[in-house]
Specification:
alpha/beta; Rossmann fold; ten-stranded mixed beta sheet; single chain; 16 helices
Length: 473
């Protein structure tokens, strides 16, 4: 069995891995690393005045974390710049928020080159290399430039945009050509995969080869849909823990006799929070008989606070929640509890179990694991209802949720009424089909499937040492 080298923007520190609060991706990758042995490489989250390439190591049995510090300019141009002001909005269909700056692109290329040059000595001859997410698209080409012949896979956790949106990126061709330095490329859904295929065949002159492989010149890459899951067993156990039960009871006692609607999202414009508040306001306006019987808890920890658009969404939500509460609150009831902080997984599981409705309504999302966590946390005897955006990647798997168009306030309001009035028998039937998928296609299923695809790519011969393009230079 080949050793595994994982490369991502940030790294799960091994000393935190037994804390119980790591995400599903970290659980799966750490499990694979411990089984196979290997290294998880990335940015430490810290800055240093001048980049040195010094690696900080932490070891835990056969697994090593290896992190580097970056310069402030790297963070401004690579992370806050190209990754989060250019690619993130573009990949979430927000061309209006996309910033095209040459300095951003230069920093993105520089940091990918630094990642490759620093990680290269860590890669052994028979290792499988697995690169993650939009921050590191050019990394495969940089590794090939340095002579890495290993099988290299890439997984994109965000959506992939339609071709007509991708064409707005001045260097769109260079970005896509860079992906052909990988052997396997994974997308969350068939839709994102089809967007990629359409661009390659229509705008690059590529062709579809055997078994759906994509051929561009002398390079063949296997592009697959591989929807990520959660560690379902772990989350179900968390929902039954004493910490979760205490949190659930606190929720019941804080507003007895009222149904809880819950949303848990990073503070990000892609999550559709202003649209969610507008839909909830429409529900309050049209159903005065139900007002005092429900309340919305929106948990929204801040993210990317140095990016202007994130400061704007926070100000907008502060104003909107205040206006709705001012309009509809009574002396013994507030319609929205809006909280800008995160909570441990066990407490979140308890909140989910107390909820009658889970609102997961992003405008565009690669997957959205909160939807799956909400399902996993439910009481089988009396489960809540998941209201899910049709534009979340999770909608392709969780078809028994109440699917909505998050841009429609009326549709959102109608879905809330439907969920509140849904008979227990129907709620149980829907939940049983949902949990079957969440258990079957969990994060370990996803990880094993992607690694199997890379193993098979390795058997057929990997890309070798010649880069396809100069996308990262």
């Amino acid at each position: 069995m080949s050793r595994l080298v994982v490369i991502s923007n940030r790294v799960q520190q091994l000393k935190q891995s037994s804390g119980g609060n790591q995400g599903g991706l970290a659980v799966a990758l750490l499990s694979a690393l411990r089984e196979r042995g290997g290294v998880w490489f990335g940015w430490s989250g810290e800055t240093v005045e001048t980049f040195t390439g010094e690696i900080h190591y932490e070891e835990d049995g056969p697994t090593t974390s290896a992190v580097i510090d970056l310069e402030p300019q790297d963070i401004d141009e690579y992370y806050n710049g190209y990754a989060n002001r250019t690619l993130w909005p573009l990949f979430h269909n927000r061309v209006d928020l996309t910033e095209f700056e040459r300095d951003f692109e230069g920093g993105y290329a520089r940091v990918n080159r630094r990642f490759a040059e620093t990680a290269r000595p860590l890669i052994k001859r028979d290792d499988i290399v697995w690169v993650h997410d939009y921050h590191l698209i050019p990394l495969g080409g940089e590794l090939r430039r340095l002579g890495v012949p290993n099988c290299i896979g890439f997984f994109l956790h965000t959506p992939w945009p339609p071709a007509d949106l991708l064409l707005s990126l001045p260097t769109h061709r260079k970005l896509v050509e860079a992906l052909f330095n990988y052997d396997v490329i994974g997308f969350q859904t068939e839709d994102w995969l089809e967007h990629f295929r359409h661009y390659v065949t229509t705008h690059l002159g590529g062709t579809l080869g055997k078994d759906g492989a994509l051929v561009l010149g002398d390079r063949t890459v296997r592009a697959i849909a591989a929807p990520i899951g959660i560690d379902t067993a772990e989350f179900e156990a968390a929902a039954a823990s004493p910490e979760a039960e205490l949190t659930r009871d606190r929720m019941y006692l804080s507003s007895p006799g009222r149904s809880l609607l819950v949303g848990v999202d990073r503070l990000d414009y892609s999550k559709g929070l202003t649209e969610r508040f507008a839909g909830y306001e429409r529900f309050l306006a049209h159903h005065p008989d139900l007002r005092g019987l429900v309340y919305l808890l929106q948990i929204a920890p801040p993210s990317r606070e140095k990016v202007d658009t994130y400061q704007e969404i926070r100000s907008s939500l502060d104003a909107l929640s205040g206006r709705i509460n001012g309009e509809y609150a009574e002396i013994d009831w507030v319609p929205i509890r809006y909280v800008n902080q995160g909570y441990p997984r066990a407490e979140l599981a308890g909140i989910f179990r107390a909820a009658r409705i889970g609102l997961v309504t992003p405008l565009r999302d690669g997957m959205n694991l909160v939807a799956k966590e909400f399902v996993a946390a439910q009481d089988p005897r009396d489960p809540g209802v998941l209201i899910l955006s049709q534009f979340a990647g999770a909608a392709a798997q969780l078809k028994d949720a109440v699917l909505v168009n998050p841009f429609s306030a009326e549709e959102m309001a109608d879905a809330i009424v439907m969920a509140l009035r849904m008979p227990r028998k129907e709620r149980i039937a829907r939940w049983e089909r949902l949990i079957d998928n969440v258990r079957r296609e969990d994060v370990h299923w996803w990880c094993a499937g992607f690694l199997d695809a890379m193993e098979r790519a390795g058997e057929g011969g990997c890309a070798g040492a010649e880069p396809v393009s100069h996308a990262a230079q």
